[in-house]
């Protein structure tokens, strides 16, 4: 068996997980700038990347300050979606009766646009942080439930029967068989949920708020300040990527044994 050739420093850097997305992002920005120049798109329709970067540089302290309310509402809405979504999924997966009553209503609730009911939260709870947290919770709740239900239902019945045959209690069987088997699906739902929670928080800020990235975007649209609006979009995308990365890191710590977390092994002959 021949030993694999050592990779050069440049090759290692190009194969790093973070390099390729950055290169693709650079390509998108260059294509964006070239499209504006070639097609002579006016600035009041699409701002140039340089204008967006200038706003990020000059207004960075203010934009960062406005990020905190959005981040706060997103994190709390996401945590609530996980706290309530996983137990609900356990009930649905463990009882056909609960599934027949609850699951159709959950699906039905997703057909209601959250932007349509967000004003009700302002009427009921005021203009504080609570309506934004509820909006983030509602958008992040459904993916957690669906993924967790799929994970709990996909447990091999033979493994459950074997654990019960070994005199395991219901709680012991759940901790040793059901939960570990469902964790990969649960984390898949959590990854989707945390990005949708960002959208939910912004929806709540659109409806009624005097702070947050959603408020900055709404104010920028009203004054046709497109560079600021695009800068706010960049921060929202960055927030979603960071939160997704945090959940992904937690997944690697919790289920390092799963096949999706294993490093690729290449054998050279």
Give your account of this protein's structure.
The protein is an all-alpha fold. It contains eleven helices and no strands. The protein has helices at 9-14, 19-39, 49-58, 60-94, 96-109, 114-125, 130-153, 157-165, 170-207, 213-222, 226-254. The longest helix is centred in the C-terminal third of the chain and has 38 residues, at 170-207. It is globular, with a radius of gyration of 23 Å. Mean pLDDT is 83; it is low at 264-269.
Number of helices: 11
How do the SSEs run, as a string of H and E?
A: HHHHHHHHHHH
Mean pLDDT, rounded to whole units? 83
Low-confidence stretches: 264-269
Topology overview:
Blueprint: H1 9-14, H2 19-39, H3 49-58, H4 60-94, H5 96-109, H6 114-125, H7 130-153, H8 157-165, H9 170-207, H10 213-222, H11 226-254
Any descriptors?
single chain, 269 residues, mainly alpha, 0% strand, globular
In short:
Helices cover 77% and strands 0% of the residues.
